[in-house]
Amino acid sequence: MKILGLDVGTKTIGIALSDAFGWTAQGLKTIRRNESNEAEDFKQIVSLIEEHAVQTVVVGYPKNMDGTIGASGQRSEQFVAQLSEYVSIHTELWDERLTTMAAERVLVDADVSRKKRKKVIDQMAARLILQGYLDRRSYTK
């Protein structure tokens, strides 16, 4: 069962994919959001879901540090609601607090240049979101 992880931002969507066993997450790609036609964003995601036979989508849920839901969290909730109009598979929101900062730290520690980091930071954040979900899922089985 493959699972897709999404780090949804206002300008880009980082995408990660699990292996068939649901053990590991790998960065897949970054989609540049289409501001004039957001249906294109969803069509690209649906295409990936179909291509990889994905059964679950995990969307990063940016909560405030005190656990409350702010504007970014509400945008994630809205994104999930819109995605359900295009595809009817299981979708979950996953707490993503500090994942972008963790992704940045991993890339800096790996001595990735600033220019290259900018290209892969969203994929790395999506990978961390998805890996957290996978780890929790295997822990609770």
TrEMBL record:
Q: Cite the entry's keywords alphabetically.
A: Cytoplasm, Hydrolase, Nuclease, Ribosome biogenesis
Kindly report, in one word, the top-level EC class recorded for this enzyme. hydrolase
Q: Where is the YqgF/RNase H-like domain?
A: 1-103
The places in or outside the cell where this protein is found are: Cytoplasm
Stated EC number for the protein is: 3.1.-.-
Per its UniProt record, what CDD domains does this chain match? YqgF (cd16964)
Q: Which family does it belong to?
A: Belongs to the YqgF HJR family.
Q: Which NCBIfam families match?
A: RNAse_H_YqgF
Record's function text: Could be a nuclease involved in processing of the 5'-end of pre-16S rRNA.
Q: Name the chain's protein.
A: Putative pre-16S rRNA nuclease
Q: Which organism is it from?
A: Shouchella miscanthi
